[in-house]
Design brief:
Number of domains: 2
GO molecular function: DNA binding; metal ion binding; methylated-DNA-[protein]-cysteine S-methyltransferase activity
CATH class of the largest domain: Mainly Alpha
Helix content: 25-40%
Radius of gyration: 16 Å
CATH architecture of the largest domain: Orthogonal Bundle
Strand content: 15-25%
Subcellular location: Nucleus
Family: Belongs to the MGMT family.
Shape: globular
Cofactor: Zn(2+)
GO biological process, one term: methylation
Number of helices: 6
Length: 187
């Protein structure tokens, strides 16, 4: 819960847990937008649910959380529908303030589509500073909304998948999931 200077609360944070093919995904947000998506850290391949079900927090779900769960459900179970769904509003300080990190995250969200991958250097160039590949890595580490802001699509120039906050196994699973689904969906 975020407090304003006068002490009244600015937003009522709500939490939702989504059971997904990669395990429990914890989502927090308020009426204004999403705060954070927490992915399960894993060192072995996920053995999550086949589908996506909200298992906690379904009652009194603010619109951004409802949109987020619908979006994630589509991402895992009907990827062809992802492009038709609204991206939920964001309410995280990192995505409000004007910074290179914000620029990188918005560029990634808007320009790197499902089933595509981009190198840190390419993303730095797209975000307006081709020499800032290392700063792009920092931006990926601070991404509060993984999967929706697809930091898993940023890989090393060598083609190696590189690091991922929730572990390399999950990053490789997400990239493989997207490649497989993209093959099924006609352009």
């Amino acid at each position: 819960q975020v407090k304003s200077k006068r002490g009244e609360s600015q937003c009522q944070e709500k939490h939702v847990v989504l059971l997904s093919p990669v395990g429990r995904i914890e989502i927090s947000g308020c009426e204004t937008g999403l705060h954070e998506i927490k992915l399960p850290r894993m060192s072995v391949l996920p053995s999550g649910a086949e589908s996506c079900e909200v298992c906690e927090g379904a009652e009194e779900m603010p619109e951004p959380l409802a949109q987020c769960t619908a979006w994630l459900r589509a991402y895992f179970c009907e990827p062809a529908a992802v492009g038709t769904l609204p991206v939920p509003a964001f309410h995280h300080p990192l995505l409000q303030q004007d910074s290179f990190t914000r620029q990188v995250l918005w560029t990634l969200l808007n320009d790197v589509k499902f089933g595509e991958a981009v190198s840190y250097k390419q993303l730095a160039h797209l975000a307006g500073n081709s020499r800032a590949a290392r700063a792009v890595g920092g931006a990926m580490r601070s991404n509060p909304l993984p999967i929706i802001i697809p930091c898993h699509r940023v890989i090393r120039s060598s083609g190696d998948s590189g690091n991922y906050g929730a572990g390399q196994v999950l990053k490789e699973w997400l990239l493989a999931h997207e490649r497989l689904q993209k093959e099924k969906v006609p352009e």
